[in-house]
Amino acid sequence: MEKQDLGRTEIASLGEFGLIEHLTKNFEIQNPSSHRGIGDDAAVIDNTGFLTVVSTDLLVEGVHFDLMYVPLKHLGYKSVVVNLSDIYAMNAQPKQITVSIAVSNRFSVEALDEFYEGVKLACKFYGVDLVGGDTTSSQKGFLISVTAIGQAKEEELVYRSGAKPGDLLCVTGDLGSAYLGLQILEREKQLYLSNPGIQPDMEEQDYLLGRFLKPEARKDMIDIFRQNKLVPTAMMDVSDGISSDLMHICKQSGVGAIIEEVGVPIHNDAKMQALKFKLDPLTCALNGGEDYELLFTVSPDDIEKIRLMPDIYIMGEITERSEGVKLHSSGGKIHDLVAQGWKHF
Amino acid sequence: MEKQDLGRTEIASLGEFGLIEHLTKNFEIQNPSSHRGIGDDAAVIDNTGFLTVVSTDLLVEGVHFDLMYVPLKHLGYKSVVVNLSDIYAMNAQPKQITVSIAVSNRFSVEALDEFYEGVKLACKFYGVDLVGGDTTSSQKGFLISVTAIGQAKEEELVYRSGAKPGDLLCVTGDLGSAYLGLQILEREKQLYLSNPGIQPDMEEQDYLLGRFLKPEARKDMIDIFRQNKLVPTAMMDVSDGISSDLMHICKQSGVGAIIEEVGVPIHNDAKMQALKFKLDPLTCALNGGEDYELLFTVSPDDIEKIRLMPDIYIMGEITERSEGVKLHSSGGKIHDLVAQGWKHF
Fold first, then answer.
1. CATH class of B168-336
2. A40 with B90: Cβ contact below 8 A
3. ipTM given for this complex
4. How far is A179 from chain B (nearest CA, A)?
């Protein structure tokens, strides 16, 4: 909850085109496929020989983020990452992004600079080029629309629809940490609102806060898949929570699934924090959302490959559609898995 | 200012995924390059052998449109058209679009259906496929983000940067009509606000109102260019007004320009309406914006081709940079052309 003195330049003093030029002047082109970037009617991307993959997200202040506890630089970084995550979830490589923002006059140029600093960091880290966007005013709040464009060879693309009964159900990383990071920030916000003099208590919460504020897309996993010649049968990223996301794979593949409670990866910090909040750690892991891990299925023939890869957890199995989507609890009971997810409406 | 009874289904009753399914179920894929559409992490577009062209716009209620006089169906249509216009302005063919919206709970599903009906009409008319998007809630107002993706052969692409001294400066259609259509709607809105019982006086204004409410992108012109093997040296679409848009071509091409007042195409309805409003028709034509015509330059060698094409007006000439950007009035005087454009900040 730090406040920085960034100075204040009114956006109106630059004008729309001046603002675009100002915000994007330090972005360098990293991909040869980025034929022409910002400054014409449209970006030009040369994808000859590859399929083009496109993903887009719209983020709204007060719905998707709260500027009271999300620093603008982190917001810029995360806005890009959540889109790249969708491209990786196709087993594709993101190459270009467009970023559009609408802001009210409550924001200064310096505030937008912070946001674009985060965008730039993400571009650099993931090797993508900013090739376009739109900058306009809003009557209220901060709005962000990001479109990511990637490439893949046809035989590498992984859809949500390819899971088959008998496939292993896997997930990268761990689940529920981002949700618990958000709960900590929400608690501190409420405490601050009721008593602005109070000091936030966020010690030893770095891991959970980082998972929410600065998530990473699993580019590393896509690279490991390629190195090991592994092509999952179905894949998506974990944005709404496993219980909701898995439903998409099951519905589009026409299959059922069973998750083993003992196979659900939960970080120790998340477990401890859930208990402090009197929440069930498993519920947080299954319904939390915003983890941006990869949920995927692989043929049982690939089990040896999977076992040798870091940070992958076999969480269950794909079953026949008629068997539904179930959770096998460590107590031995079988429950229906109910999609709760994150609802914006 | 008609009101329609559309019934009312709360958006919350469908849920986010139900809403996406509901809104996009009647869209058919029209392009073989649309390999995979809505329903996965990302759309998949096969552009093998062509360059990919991408353009994006963010439209905000109260900034870019006023729902008091813009019907939602027109808004959906126009939101698509303004993006396609950017792709045509590259001399490229749009193939796919993504449409994201954020809406407050003031909107019903039926209202969104109207909007998507307009999106669908535009998709059909221009032969583009809706392949993705995002649907979320907003705290206030209606927000639209559209990204258009197109294709072109490398040798056909036209940038803003290719104009040379001696080139002819041309424009399609006529200028200023959309601006005057907007002025009529603004006047009627003010009258209505001060006296809700009053009947709007919009007779014989169909042309001007249509130019603002239902603009078309000049796909027809791009097709005619191709049929006649004409490749402009520079091109952009008229969104902010010629005086502002021409500055972009001049800046990026490193040239000057002179516009002949007698060459500026103004529709008779626009001329009459400007005079009724005690406005200078030429000022409306040069600064009006939202015409979505094509402003382009061609080599003087192509003058015979241009003369035989319908609806193209030679408006002036490209000059050396040192000569600046000027207007040669019909009274014989030379003025500096000042970019006023449309400012959102």
1. alpha beta
2. yes
3. 0.87
4. 19
